[in-house]
Model the fold of this input.
Amino acid sequence: MITTSAASLVTRMRLKRELSKTAFAQLVGVPASTITRIESGIVDPTYSMLQKIASGAGFTLSGTLSDVGSDAPYAAAVERIQNASSVERRRLVKKLAQTAILAPVTKRPGVRIFSLDRPIGDFVRYLEQRGANPTVSSLEAVADDIASTRSFTPVVYVERPEDLDDLTPMSPTARSSVIVLPITENVRKFTRWVNGTAMLAPEWGMLDALASPGRQTDVARTFLPQLAARVTMTREAGAAA
Done:
């Protein structure tokens, strides 16, 4: 049960994310004026609106404000991008780094990290042979290609990570690693097939790359302008067709 006022709750969400009202509004997908009016007590939002704001900011609504720990903010962000106009799409893609911090890949439910002793393409084919139904994310999904490993730490979703007991867990001596996460309904919603491989939408792949540990985040940031230009051209091409 929520006992604090909506104004106080929304303000706490925003301050925990260390964002201005404008940046916070962009993150959760509502007008900045709405956040301002809620925080000032001028508007008393409905419960569904509070849920939308909390979900977009990566929180659950309860007696205390707690991180969701799920991919719900990712799904909301990708859906906003795919439904936006060309100009708005470019701006939203450049803001993906803000969304990525809401769901670090290593803190998601069911995550497992394994040593990667083969090219990512070979690893994905092995998972397919195992019947794990892998879905590729991170920079490989951004590039639509698993012929070469672009990510320092690739991210792959499978049906049941807990069943992959034959893989070697990550260790300090391993040369590289792969992050394996369970497939969720949100992942299924944004999965597409590229040259016979199940991949997440490029925007989601970018989010996972930005939310990965180590140098992966810095590398992903350098690709943001390219992705912004790409999704804008894709939208314009689709409109022309």
Notes: The domain at 1-68 is CATH 1.10.260.40 (434 Repressor (Amino-terminal Domain)).
